[in-house]
């Protein structure tokens, strides 16, 4: 489960009957939307634009990989599965 809580993107997992915080990353000002494909997470911020986050399962952490250099208002976004590999 990946809830957006204002400045943070948190990753939770079920451990038995409890929901446990697995990893989190602080991002921008007003997180608006999230989309995932595999370990890649695309986060839309209302003020700052779009950021790419990757989940590193070996380390158990979320890492900010890339952000949009220009501030834009993001009202909607979409990820597509492409036929080439992304090496981060």
Describe the structure.
The protein is an all-beta fold and 88 residues long. It has one domain (4-67). Helices cover 0% and strands 53% of the residues. It has no helices and seven strands. It has strands at 4-5, 8-15, 18-26, 31-37, 40-45, 49-56, 61-67. The protein has a four-stranded antiparallel β-sheet with strand order 4-5-6-7, with no helix packed on it. Strands 1-2-3 form a three-stranded antiparallel β-sheet, with no helix packed on it. Strand 5 (40-45) and strand 6 form a beta hairpin. The protein is globular, with a radius of gyration of 13 Å.
Would you kindly provide a brief summary of this structure?
This protein is mainly beta and 88 residues long. Helices cover 0% and strands 53% of the residues. A hairpin with a 4-residue loop joins strand 6 and strand 7.
